[in-house]
Amino acid sequence: MRLFAKLSLGLLAGLSLGALGIDLCLRSSLPQLDGEHALASLQAPVQLQRDALGIVTIHGEQRLDLARATGFAHAQDRYFQMDLLRRNAAGETAALLGPAALPLDRQRRFFRMRAAAVAAVQALPDEERALLDAYVDGVNQGLQALRSRPFEYWLLRQQPQAWRPEDSLLVLMTMFFSLSDARGERELALSALRENLPAELLRFLTPKGTPWDAPLQGQADTESAAIPPPQVYDLRSLKKSSFPQLSWAERSAPDPGFHRGSNNWALAGAHVAGGGALVSGDMHLDYRVPHIWYRLRLQSDSGLDLSGVSLPGVPFMIAGSNRHIAWALTTTYGDWSDLVALELDPADPTRYRTPQGWRRFTHQHEILRQRQGADEALDIDETIWGPVIRDARGRAYAVHWLARVPGAVNLHCRQLESARRVQDALDIVHLCGLPPQNFVAGDAQGHIAWSVAGRIPHRVASDGSTPLSWAEQEHWQGFLDPARYPQVLDPPQGRVWSANARMVDGEALRLIGTGNYALGARQQQIRDDLLAIEQARPQDMLAVQLDDRALFLHRWQQRLLSLLTPAALAGQPLRAQARTLIEHWGAHAAPESVGYRLVNEWRTQMHDAVFAALLAPCRAANADCRYGAPMFQSEGPLWQLITQQPLHLLNPRYENWDALLLAALDAVITPYAQQPGGLAARSWGERNTLSMRHALSPALGPLARWLDMPAVPMAGDNQMPRVQTAHGGASQRMAVTPGREEEGYLNMPGGQSGHPLSPFYSAGHQDWIEDRPTPFLPGKPKHQLRLLPAAAGTS
């Protein structure tokens, strides 16, 4: 992606300063690590310690002092990252980075999230507002305490703007954008498919799940819909020119199908060596420098001892342990947005019908500021339900998205730090203001649980799977009563798990929504790994997290070998070479495996070829007809098609299904053979090479290596516990028993500091690369800064 490429000239001009001047500017923006510093509004002295990796421990008497010191540390180490996060949600990035960021700003400003964040701050309870205000004050004091502005602002020739309370809510809203379908795109695509495909074909293409499912409640979906007969849908009766040809160029983009998500699980005390629950989690996100998480330990004289990962910009811990409970998160991929089909007034299309009668659109005129460019106007029509979009046929819909509903974003999760039992945690998380997450927790007594953290909309009159009019009745009526939340507490098997796939069925599934769940293959592999472990220890959890066995692709490997018969290999030396590599693939997503890469790419090629043909007539009628990535259960119908091989559903460009299967393989191996080293050099690691870059590095040319993490071939893939692609994957890995944190581990890519001259810029990164477990708790202090009430300290 070249989002920031247009920054190049400006940044290189900024680098025209003398080398000595650059060095002085950069070093002056490093934080103070030792000594004393006066901090206004502190009630008592606070200790801010850093270990050899730069992991921060903050010790103080009062919780508000800890919040103020947390803000101070976040700003000193990560202010530019915080700035990008708030701007990302608000649609204000181009003002800092320039015109290259305008497309993102247009998408985000459409939702006017800054106004929503201001309203969310005003609605916070007094206790949460006090915590936020202390944190914001600490952020701004931390920024001001730097002798020079953070280095990124020197390169951009910009001044950082002060942090405001609403900015912390915007950071949380950024996570809503990443982890939910803000614009209802899946619903729009399903609506187009429903309008343009026979019902039998749609039912076949959109199963609830597959035999890969491994829900906590209910069973895997083992009964697939029947393939529709020719009299329902027959591609062979259409002209060949209407159908696409295979094109490898279309599949050359990195990481096709990367599904942001996570793994988490917990084992009950009866299955853990030494007792107490064992909680594990690894959140999967895009890689960036600096890294998204910031390791932190908070201790108070009143007994608080909280460790885990924080999100710079937010004043509470995202995942971790408080000596009594430990918790981890994965995104639910439930249905958190609905499209409201608007009934417009035929006599006045600026009016739409509501349960209270006709109302006129509210027109919002937004200005998108951009660095080194003219401002751009963005006009938005708003309804009482949300902003207005139009489909490919011009029909108007209001986007009703959870993140904009008052009360859906808050700081209630802060209360997890004081929970003593799993049941306490469940009572808290049902009111949390996060994008709804699979919440897995365990306590020191050995109890475990799963539920949803975050507000669930109370839907009435529909399941949210298709756009409907709300002119007669509001289909969202507040939030679901916490007493009705799906949850699993101390199940008989002594284990709970989640991996972004379907967790429940029946009424519980209806409450969460049909959503866009990940295929269950990863979740099933995790479940089976856990059920095979007794008297578990943290190192056993790391082995599960690093499980890169290719169980999902095994049947595809076998199918490909059966395809490559002597007849298929006759006069085809490249296919013969491919067969040998595929036969000896190693059955792991290992960096050195060529066979794994060939099987993976062949399946991807087949996926796109099959569904592009099936939907070609639909796409010709309606550009909103989309499949593939928005439909993550497509493995079910795809496998049925290539095994049963119904001729009437085959692209008419091909004589039979085996011809298509072989053409897909040739589309993979032919260009590979023409690259240096030939086919035998096309290892999985060549494609799966870590690309962890700073936001500014694309504009810096050869100087980018100064900011980026080294490119390293990596093991892992999507449909296995070890989720790893070039650009995304495990953003941290942890396993911990509350009360025995000294035995746990927590590591992550990148380092604590966002400053390339800091010793902590990449400290700990190599542990993550080499799969070495970093201790869960910070090590011995190497640096200590005393923060003193302003009247008593020196700065």
TrEMBL record:
Binds 1 Ca(2+) ion per dimer. It holds the Pfam family Penicil_amidase. Keywords: Calcium, Hydrolase, Metal-binding, Zymogen. It comes from the Bacteria. Ca(2+) binds at residues 187, 335, 338. Heterodimer of an alpha subunit and a beta subunit processed from the same precursor. This is Penicillin amidase.
